[in-house]
Amino acid sequence: MSYLLPKNRFPLILNTKVIAGVLGTYTVSKLVYQAFFNPLNVIPGPWWVRFTSIPYIISLLRGNIVEFMSDLHEKFGPVVRVNPNEVSITCGSDIKRILSSYKYEKSKRYSNMNDICEDIFTTRSESYNKMRRKQVAPAFTHHGLETVDDVIMEVGIESLYQKFDEEINRNGGKSTTINYYNTFQNVSTDIIGELALGKSFNSIKNGGHLIIDYINIAIVMGALRTMLPFLIVLYYIVPKVVKLRNKAIKFTLDAIDERRKQNEENSYKPKRDDILQMYITAINSTNQKKLSNSELIKELVVMIGAGVDTTSTTMTWILHLYMMYPSVYQKVVKEINDSFPDRSKLIRYQEARKKLVYFVATVYESMRFRSVSGAPTYRMSSGDGVFLKDNTFIPPNTEMGLFIKGAHMDENVWNNPKSFNPDRFLGEEGEKLKKEVLAFGAGVRICPGKNLAWMEIFTILPNLIRKYEFKLPKDSIFGPQHVDETTGEPILAKASAYIVTAPTYPQRDCNIVISHKENV
Fold this sequence. Notes:
alpha+beta, about 50% helix, iron ion binding, heme
């Protein structure tokens, strides 16, 4: 019996000319469709967006997606097509409406960020997100945060005082130089460590922690994988990444095992339940089981990362802007000194929010002007599509980039938006404008740790500013005298946007001279 294929059994498959013809026909028809018939062609944008995402991906890789999107919107308006199946939107009211409903689910690029499993941030599922929010909600309610003030004071403020005083005394009681980007990361890490795991990471004392190093890498990797998911292999082949990832997982797993043992021995008796305890005792509504180790590790690392990077980077930009605008800084200093003259008592959150009206205005303006969430957040237009405020129709199943930075620069909302002006947030009109700041997102998937972030910002900065004097080093390449000729505003440190918009060169650009007030 012959096992040879009969002659001409598969003539189409074996005919390379036919294959080439089919592929060529498909390619041409695809190009014709994209060029002339794609419903997104009515959305303004550069010519190349009909055919390719390459310029968009390059800007993402370089970390300059915010500048890339800003340039497109300045040229083409509030709704811009940025690649073959994505539009970018800057109208704040449209962004808030889209974020207010689970109907417009997160785009699939968030699934690209999953490694161990999905989590509260990456999940596209309404039920999954609601489940996780419910499990951790007690940690972030006003009632749950009642005792957090004490944690911030002890783990944050008092530890910073001790560290700064040691550095100043080591320099003979004179001024000393610190890196405030590192400082704010360390203090935020210690606070979230206490709230998430029930213990400080001692980052302030030790000058850092491996969890910070891993978070910094994971944020960049996560952003890149949204468009290039195959980059997940870097977690397994780049030695530094592999080492940090394994250490972070082991550290978190050890904390989980330790807590389980404490629960079994009934030796866990805290003043307040931490996030680990809430998750470890929770039952998943999806399968009626407790969270697995993989789920616990993922949720805890995400919660720690979110608690560290957004808050610390926000404080970094606030202090950086104070140094660029000395008149603003001096007004903040005067308000804090006048409102809280007794330095023996620490400034607490509720007092700061009530008395420091101008300081609060500077925080809002900093979050508008240099938002850590300036890069787009992505949603799908649903099977129905969506009409925007200007009657633009976004077709069904289109990816929408909700460009927060663009909303913060919308001339229809903000007077002279490219100017740093905290006064815009004063008075009755200022209260209305506060609702237009979208630094923490909005709607059904708003940042669950928003209230905690406010507490940290409104206590850490006022207490530090009251006790210490801050000024730029003499060799700083930034300052109020270095002005952008096009805007008349001081040139700010270069920023890169990988999920969080942070200084590109923090070790160079975020150094500051501190001294005790009485020594100034």
